[in-house]
Amino acid sequence: MKILPLTISILMLLSFDAAALDVKQRFDHLDSDKSGYLTHDELAPQPQLLNTFVKWDKNQDNQISLVEFKSYLTNNLY
Ligand SMILES: [Ca+2]
Predict the structure, then answer these.
(1) What is the pTM of this model?
(2) Where is the signal peptide, in residue numbers (predicted)?
(3) Which domains, from first to last, does the chain contain?
(4) pLDDT tens for residues 28-40?
């Protein structure tokens, strides 16, 4: 019987999708002007995010894209 490993793979896949969706929702929530980027102003109410802004901003354009947001969370939380 190979049901258990298959079930675990499916569950991992589903939870990965859920996490990806959650990241997008968090990004959209923070992106108050819906520009597609997070700026210092938008992160001002989130000091813990603002303090690590430099680490997120990989290309140093002073804004956080969804890709930068995702890769930061992926590298730090998952
Ligand atoms: Ca950037």
Answers:
(1) 0.70
(2) 1-20
(3) 3-77 (1.10.238.10)
(4) 999 999 999 999 9
